[in-house]
Amino acid sequence: MNWNEISELYETDEDFMYENAILVFDTSSLLELYFYSTNSAVEILEKCNYHFKDRMFLPNHVKFEYDKNREIIIKKQTSGYQNVFNKNNSIGFFAKIIYQQEMIKRIITDTNNAIKNFEQQFGNRQTHPYFSSGFIEEFKTEVSNFTLKLADIENSKIFSDFEDKLKDETEARITEITNQIEQDNLKEFIENNFTIGDDYSFPELMDIISEGELRYSASIPPGYMDAEEKQSIQVYGDLIIWKQILKHAQSQSKPVIFVSDDTKEDWNEIIEEEEVNKKKKRTDSKRPRYEILMEFKDIVGEKIKKLKLSDFLYELNGQLETKFGSSTISEIKFKSLKETIEDEALNFIRVLEREIEEVQGDGLEPDDAYDFYEIDNFTNLSSIDKISLNDLGEGLYQVEYLATFDCNIEREYYEYWGRDDDTKEEITSPPSIVRASGELLVKINREIRVCFGEDFNPVIEDEEEPDIEIIEDNREVYKHSWEDDFYDEDDYDYY
Fold first, then answer.
1. Burial 189-222 (b: 16+ CB within 10 A, else e)
2. Is the pLDDT of residue 236 over 60?
3. Which of 167, 294, 327, 341 is packed most tightly, with the most Cβ within 10 A?
4. CA proximity to 343, closest of 311, 300, 391
């Protein structure tokens, strides 16, 4: 097969595919439906069933992985409700309000202590400085009026009453989520409307594993990336799913629309050689590996089209006579925005490395340091630990990133000793040195304005410069003062 023939495999007639192809979900996209509201998730599956009718297929291994991870995914959604009470979390708004109320208590206490100390310090007419008793009493009255107003706020039951209501509401939503484990409309729909593939016998699995060992050693897709992350037979899970898709499609002599949110290079073409988190590379979710296209064509005699869930839903909506409801479309757009933010995160954060370099030097020199000379300063993104997205309304969104950076900074700093009387040149101390090396955990807050195109894809504009905050400093810091050289010159490791 020449390259022109391979290129032709990427070209599919959308109308033909949706009228004739078998619809197949993988585990990632099937479980992703649990991050939609129940109503939207059910509507999505109902529209799929209406359009594809008896052409919906679920590989047996997908069903196995779905059953294994379903409860975990459902319970995972409860963590968001717990974060409402965490003032350090991006959605912990109520906790931040409560924290401010606690701050009022401290202000009242500190203010009352301050006025007592003021009276003790300045109320003695026998010593200077002192203030008249009339002025002190007037001052105490003004302060007292201020603290009484604060006390009214602090003693208000508004927040405490609402906190109880919020906890009740949270418990109700958590109960609602956990009840879904036993009364799962999605699970019932899947089992009633999808054709579930037959399981493989143990000898058949051994044959697939033997083939997998050969394929993985030569990096032949799919599934070889799992060799580093999974164990036992699960290492070959993607290959097992692939074999079941091939077998079913061959028996039906039909093309396949494969809905998968798997973005690893053992499914998709690589579009960026630079490694992300030292493990995976950036890929094109709309272009599966040509080996997959070739194998499907050779065995089935048809084409296969691989799409992320959000892209599939957009295309499906275009094929439907009755479109998705507005609520479902809003959720699809939000998911699409989240995916875009995650895809852009690497490049966005690396642009900020220079700003992190500037921030990481703050506070290293003593307060009395006059000037410094930078010997070395580098910052390198190590990992993106967390990305959260919050809808602020009216097209505004808040994005919060937690990222770890490998950092190193070394500076010489000086004390100011004055100016030469004759030359007027500055006189400074000999150089002292400060060095910090290790990891910084950084929180980046970003506010964006978003417009969505007809294809549900977002157009993003930053409203202002992102806010950068170091929330955890795990660097080792070494300081050496010029004065130390006068005591033990051998201890000074200068370079």
1. bbeebbeebeebeeeebeebeeebeebbeeebbb
2. yes
3. 341
4. 311
Give the pLDDT confidence of 118-138 residue by residue, as tens digits.
Answer: 888 887 777 778 888 888 888
- Domain locations in the chain as residue ranges: 3-59+197-324, 328-491
Query: Quick one: tokens of 377?
Result: 């300063």
Q: What one-letter code names the amino acid at 20?
A: N
Instruction: Give the 3-state secondary structure of residue 173.
Output: helix
Are the CB atoms for 402 and 441 separated by under 8 Å? yes
Over the stretch 407-440, which tens digit does the pLDDT of each residue have?
Answer: 999 988 888 888 888 888 888 888 888 899 999 9
Q: Is 47 exposed, middle or buried (0-12, 13-18, 19+ CB in 10 A)?
A: buried
| Dihedral sign (CA 17, 22, 28, 30) | positive
Strands of 101-199 (E only): list them. 195-196
Read off the tokens for 252.
């039906």
Distances (CA, A) of 230 to 31, 223, 296, 398: 19, 11, 25, 35
CA 108 from chain centre, in angstroms, equals: 39
Within 8 A by CB and 6+ apart from 210, the residues are: none
